[in-house]
Amino acid sequence: MVENVVIIGSGPAGLSAALYTAREGFNPIVIAGTDEGGQLLLTTTVENYPAFPDGITGPQLIDNMRMQAERQGARFAHEYVKDVDLTSKPIKVVTDKATYLSKSLIIASGASSKWIGLESESKFIGRGVSSCATCDGPLFKNKDVIVVGGGDTAMEDSLFLTGFAKSVTLIHRRNEFKASRIMQDRLRSNPKIRIILDTTIDEILGDARVTSVRIKGVKTGKTEEIKTDGVFIAIGHKPNTEFLNGKLKLDDGGYIITRNIVETDIDGVYVGGDVADKEYRQAVTAAGTGTMCALKVRHYLQSH
Ligand SMILES: Cc1cc2nc3c(=O)[nH]c(=O)nc-3n(C[C@H](O)[C@H](O)[C@H](O)COP(=O)(O)OP(=O)(O)OC[C@H]3O[C@@H](n4cnc5c(N)ncnc54)[C@H](O)[C@@H]3O)c2cc1C
Questions:
Q1: Are 207 and 223 in contact (CB under 8 A)?
Q2: 293 a catalytic residue
Q3: Which residue segment(s) compose the domain that 88 sits in?
Q4: 102 and 13 belong to one structural domain
Q5: Distance between CA atoms of residues 269 and 249, nearest Å
Q6: Do residue 228 and residue 132 come from a single domain?
Q7: pLDDT digit string (tens) for 85-130?
Q8: pTM score, two decimals?
Q9: Burial class (CB in 10 A: 0-12, 13-18, 19+), 182
Q10: Is 136 a catalytic residue?
Q11: 191 and 92, same domain (yes or no)
Q12: Pocket of ligand 1, beta carbon within 6 A
């Protein structure tokens, strides 16, 4: 059997693509992946997705998207993609359980935030620990927050958070930043920002939510507890592209390179959401580019 369209990923991009292609009658199949629902499952409150004036939890938003796509006829496979053959016609998608043949493909496999790796960090994700300052910064009005990292993202996040938080403490494990000089200057001249270098987070502490962190001097080994309401991990993202095995071009950061936002060099193969987006990384932009992929698939299927 040859599918009209296979969609890789079940985050906002994949689910929007599923909704649109299902409504068009293309009977899409979504390969949901091991993180079914995607990154929004890591957050409690989403206040910036249009149409929810009182906000909505990340898991509920994803449930709604999935139900809506399913109601229109989208099918879901609880599998993950291990390999693809994009040059064969039909395209071949190999998962851990099956091989799919398809006329077209939408890649919406997202990205994963890099985390420090502490058990207490996973425990408090969505309860004071976040990897998305744009998303969660406004939830920390007049609070004390910590940012972890030393690159441009950590600088940008720290500066952005000063618009809401009472204080921002930037913690970096080395004694100098990787970030550009201009960002560093802006950071150092901001009176709300305190910088602690040569230091790591040893433990994140709290009850229902984060209340403090224990930090540790890299050279001294000395520990100290500092109070905080939030911890923003800003040490980078890793786009989920292992299954491509080099079959599409990636940029230096591992993001898929696209033309006209969602097109690739291969006809019938489109890319939406965070796997190609290192700039915006929002649910609504992922849903938007997922929709663009679906509209491209419609044109492609009509003309092939
Ligand atoms: C802590 C946190 C809080 C956030 N808060 C907000 C917020 O408040 N508002 C907002 O707009 N945005 C928020 N975001 C950002 C938002 O979650 C992302 O921009 C959005 O989820 C990206 O959607 P996506 O569909 O591109 O990818 P993702 O959500 O990353 O989903 C990727 C999907 O691809 C699947 N996948 C990966 N590899 C494979 C494979 N090999 N085979 C099959 N499937 C695969 C995964 O299982 C997953 O289902 C937050 C992010 C984080 C981390």
A1: no
A2: no
A3: 2-112+237-303
A4: yes
A5: 13
A6: yes
A7: 999 999 999 999 999 999 999 999 999 999 999 999 999 999 999 9
A8: 0.93
A9: exposed
A10: yes
A11: no
A12: 8-14, 31-40, 42-43, 46, 48-49, 80-81, 108-111, 113, 130-132, 135-136, 240, 243, 273-274, 281-284, 286
